[in-house]
Amino acid sequence: MKWLILFFLIPHIFYNISYSQVTADAKIVEFNADHGAQIGDFNTYVGTDYRPSVELKENGHETFGRLQHPLCGEWHFTKAAYHGLQGYLFGCAGDPHNEETRRSEQMIIKEWAAGNTNDASDGIRYFSLAFKLLLPHRPDEGKGFIAQLHQGGSGPPPFYIAWVYDTTEHAYFIEMSTYSDLIRSDETYDYNFTNMTSDEIDRNKYLKVENEKWMHMLVSIDPGPTAPLRSGRSSIAPGDNGQIKAWIMDLQSGSWLEAGQYDGRIGFWYEGKEHETGATYRNDKECRYQWKVGIYRNEVDPITYYFDNIKYADRWYRITNNYLIGYHRNVLSYSFDNESSLVVNDRSFEKNAHRSVDYDNDGKLKGTTFYVNSDIKGKALRLLGSGYVHIENDLQDFDFGNYQSVSLWFRTTNSSEINRGLFTVDNFGGKWKSLIYMSDELIAYGVRHPDGTYSKANLTTQNGQYNDGNWHHIVGTFNRWAEDGQRIKLYLDGQLAFSLEGLDKPIARGEAFATVGRCFSDNYFIGDVDEVNVFNYELNAEQIFDLYNNP
Questions:
Q1: Which residue from 160, 193, 453, 497 has the highest number of Cβ atoms inside 10 Å of its Cβ?
Q2: What is the pLDDT of residue 433?
């Protein structure tokens, strides 16, 4: 997948959106703080809104940034990032006397019409949002919106994600709710309120809001088909068969959990107040949807929001980076069996439960290499001091985020004080993302973070301990939110050999290529390698022991 960054020059600031186009009608839009995408535009004041002078149109509806009521507080880039170099920070003063200073929203999508033939064929949009909050010092017994689906210019939002204070448990929680109007035979209506939170999820574990704790959510919204037309009714009024589903990330495992689901009408046909009869029908514009992210309502103390991964797409697998985000996947697998002379086939698709996912990370042999019989399984690759496997640049598969595992077998009799590379991602100019190397007295596994710092396990070994001519199994893992607090671990021959806390930061992002048998520019491994596997999640001790016994 190729990512294009579009920069729109506006006086005094840049407004840009990361924009990916897979086919003519398949796009992903992301507000990407890593590339300096600024939220909102302060140049043009219209009524109570600050509106941008640049808008993008995607499949018939508009996508743009709008920061409302900036007096609520400033936003800026922050090094506190969920995934990447930086994210966004919103601040709100919490003035109870002036509601307009308590509102700061970034509109992501507008003019989205239910049943619009310009929309994608499945009629669904997928939204991603990572956030963490600094909550008021004094409990606010109301709620503060984090994201919402809005409709028209008035009325409650058809769907919202918010923080709420639970007076019984004296704690803050995430709430997801929907609103719609119920149509009756006598044309009266009422608001239908539905709390969307799933009864299956552990509310205290996954939906409890704690200061400085990242939360990552996905939402799919299907407005349903256009309703049957009646006299005076909008031609794009919402149908009765809509659906909203929400997922939240289990940070410790890196997997999605279903957080709630709603089936039914999404939104409103009418303007008016509760129990009012003879209400007027909404027009087409008033029936269209908008998706917003930001602060809305805080009446007690100042509050700070951190945002990252703000994006939407028209297909599920695109917003999850081809099932790399939130799904446990093997993204590279080399067995070195039955290979051609120059190409090493990636067989990761054979190891994934979702067989249609093929990450296609085939490698090319460089330098002096040849295949030998392996005592581990089938064939192995022999490297003679100038040979290695080169895996081409990839913008997505090696973008590991907050989790990674690398597993391989090696055999050597070479004695060297130089660090010999076994596996590396991005190995030029000190820009490596992850690496495993060894010498006579050291075995190391590490990951580099976006700001140039790194977390690395350096295991001191006895001279010649692992260059004894026998096969050895090595696994390095990184989990930013590891349950035991040890983010980085190094396993040797099926057992944990070294662990350390590491840093509370993601793995570096960006374009990447990988190598097997080399690190940096000329630190080549001399010996044999086999069964190289890379995963986008942390393997646990049981899984690693099983890999050791069943390669």
A1: 160
A2: 93
